[in-house]
Amino acid sequence: MVIFPIAANYDKVRADLWIVIAITAFFMVLSMDGSLGRIDGALLVVGITLYLWRLYRIRTLTPELATKEKGKRLSTYVASIVGGLIVLALGTHLFTSAAVKLARIIGISELVIGVTIVAVGTSLPELATSLVAAFRKQSGIVLGNILGSNVFNLMVVLGIIPIFKPIMVPDQSRLIQMPIMLGLTLVLVPVLKYQQGIKRGTGVALLGGYVIFTVCMYRLNGL
């Protein structure tokens, strides 16, 4: 957004944007007691199932895109996806393990490492995808990547894990980080509605906000 301003039709993304907002608020309600149990996880899994069913019902395929890709083999794409997932999983495992060890060495909480260093590291593939899509003027992929990532993390990752092992939700996460996440998502509503996209100035403001957030997280933990 700082490098390539994103154009977007608010009417086309409105439903998905409000779904993300509703999911975020729902997740905050589930975690109010300080934990995510099996029932909470099951509710989130049911939610992602309904969300995917909705996407299936409204799916569309651009005719010119279908013609362009017609001559390419499906197996090539499947192999690329599988290979990419394997490499990504291995890289994420190594990155996360190193980040946790770093947190213990310098004496800060794993939560802070998670919302800063690990979050940045695991978001790099999304950033790369969004940069390529923005360069190609594919704003739908950029916004879809951002919104879809939030939905997947909240409903799949934090839905499946509690089914097998309940998760404790720290007070700092419930009282500070989640409200900030919900607030930033709400900010996208007027931005996309009145700017019809995300301009360079807005991107700079969001990036600056993240820097301030990161500094505050470390300051709260005495660093």
Describe what you observe in this structure:
The chain has 223 residues and is mainly alpha-helical. It has a single domain, classed as A middle domain of Talin 1 (Up-down Bundle). The chain is 80% helix and 4% strand. The protein has helices at 10-30, 38-57, 63-69, 74-106, 110-135, 139-164, 171-195, 200-220, and strands spanning 6-7, 35-36, 167-168, 197-198. A two-stranded antiparallel ribbon has the order 1-4. It has a two-stranded antiparallel ribbon with strand order 2-3. The longest helix has 33 residues, at 74-106. The radius of gyration is 19 Å and the shape is globular. The two termini are 30 Å apart. The mean pLDDT is 79.
Low-confidence stretches: none
Going by helix content, strand content and strand pairing, the class is: mainly alpha
How many independent structural domains?
1
CATH fold topology: A middle domain of Talin 1
Largest sheet: 2 strands, antiparallel
Number of E-state strands: 4
Mean pLDDT: 79
Name of the CATH class: Mainly Alpha
Q: How would you classify the quaternary structure? A: single chain
- Report, as a whole number of angstroms, the end-to-end distance: 30 Å
The strands making up the biggest β-sheet line up spatially as 1-4
The arrangement of helices and strands along the chain is EHEHHHHHEHEH
